[in-house]
Design goal:
By secondary structure, the protein is an alpha+beta fold. 32% of the residues lie in helices and 10% in strands. The strands form four sheets. It has a four-stranded antiparallel sheet with strand order 7-8-10-9. The chain has a two-stranded antiparallel sheet with strand order 1-2. A hairpin with a 6-residue loop joins strand 5 and strand 6. Helix 3 packs across helix 4. The longest helix has 35 residues, at 24-58. 30% of the residues are buried.
């Protein structure tokens, strides 16, 4: 067979078929092109990484932020806040979408504990918020009664708001919605006067390696009502009479307007399981919560007075130094107010 030969020649090919070496100009051209490609790729990779980091800090499951701090300032109405049920779980509609609601928030900045900048602060220290809600000696006992429910209507406008008591026999006025402030960028809200105190406690616990995750704070009147009605309907579907269904439901879910969550004065911390009493977060709260104005509201020993089953996760703001006094007294809030002669 005859040997195949090329029918073309390179422009830099010698007569003997060898190639001429590249001159310096050609070498520099290739080097510059390669350098430009490397620089462009580096810029694109950097931009992509920054974009992912920014997204991960602002988005999390259930509509919460993963970072401890929200940089956005509250507006006159805060839209799109995830709704939680009586157990602090996010409520979804028939399509699986998280239900949201809007309510007023503080527009003029109150005295708050500023959250630390995660880029400049390791300790998480905050300026202590000014304590408010000292006992008002001119306050008179609530006597107005709701003829439909037979419950006493509490005065939600009293100066010593931290002593408002709602329970099975006492309810807030119909239509009352407290002014809110978000807690540590969690998507969970409390009364704007209470949120700074929870934030201060949150960051103090952080320094001890404890995370007091806000689980369920404010709940609207309508959400509480829906939760209760749903429980009653479920009980009736299981064969209970209405009276039986109502009794069982209200032993677990307070009627709307009678929960401290409706006032924005309480926080369910971390979860709503009895086993929380065995967790390090609970131990930290038992030792330190009073230093920030919070008390364990519902215990087994005081169930006959509060009408609520033990809830180790439920912590109520009463103010400093009152939380210390209540803790030392061994009394529940109702007993302590009575002993101090504070009208409610």
């Amino acid at each position: 067979m005859s040997e195949n030969k090329r029918t073309f020649h390179y422009a830099d090919e010698r007569p003997d078929g060898t190639r001429l070496p590249m001159n310096p100009k050609q070498k520099w051209s290739i080097f510059i092109v390669a350098l430009v490609v490397v620089v462009v790729i580096s810029i694109l990779v950097t931009v992509k990484i920054k974009g992912k980091n920014s997204t991960s800090e602002t988005m999390a499951e259930g509509g919460e932020t993963t970072s401890d701090v929200s940089e956005s300032q509250p507006s006159a109405t805060m839209p799109g806040v995830p709704v939680t049920n009586d157990y602090g779980q996010f409520v979804t509609d028939d399509n699986g979408n998280t239900v949201t609601e809007s309510f007023p928030t503080e527009t003029t900045e109150p005295t708050t504990a500023d959250a630390p900048d995660p880029d400049t602060s390791v300790s998480g220290e905050t300026d202590a918020p000014t304590d408010i809600g000292n006992a008002d000696p001119t306050q008179t006992a609530d006597t107005r009664e709701n003829p439909e429910t037979g419950r006493i209507i509490v005065d939600v406008d009293r100066e010593d708001f931290n002593f408002i008591v709602v329970n099975r026999t006492r309810e807030m006025p119909d239509g009352f919605v407290p002014t809110m402030k978000e807690v540590v960028g969690s998507g969970i809200y409390m009364d704007y006067r209470v949120a700074p105190h929870y934030e201060e406690m949150y960051y103090a616990a952080k320094q001890d390696g404890i995370t007091l995750t806000p689980y369920s704070g404010y709940r609207s009147y309508e959400r509480q009502k829906n939760n209760l009605n749903n429980r009653i309907a479920t009980n009736q579907a299981n064969g209970m009479s209405y009276d039986e269904a109502y009794a069982e439901a209200t032993s677990v879910i307070l009627p709307p307007g009678t929960s401290e969550h409706n006032l924005g004065l309480a926080m369910d911390v971390c979860n709503v399981y009895d086993s929380f009493a065995n967790q390090p977060e609970y131990a930290w709260l038992m030792e330190h919560a009073h230093e920030y104005g919070f008390i364990l509201r519902y215990t087994a020993e005081k169930q006959s007075i509060t009408g609520i089953v033990p809830e180790p996760w439920h912590w109520r703001y009463v103010g400093v130094p009152y939380a210390q006094q209540i803790k030392e007294s061994g009394l529940c809030l109702e007993e302590w107010l009575t002993a101090q002669g504070i009208a409610y």
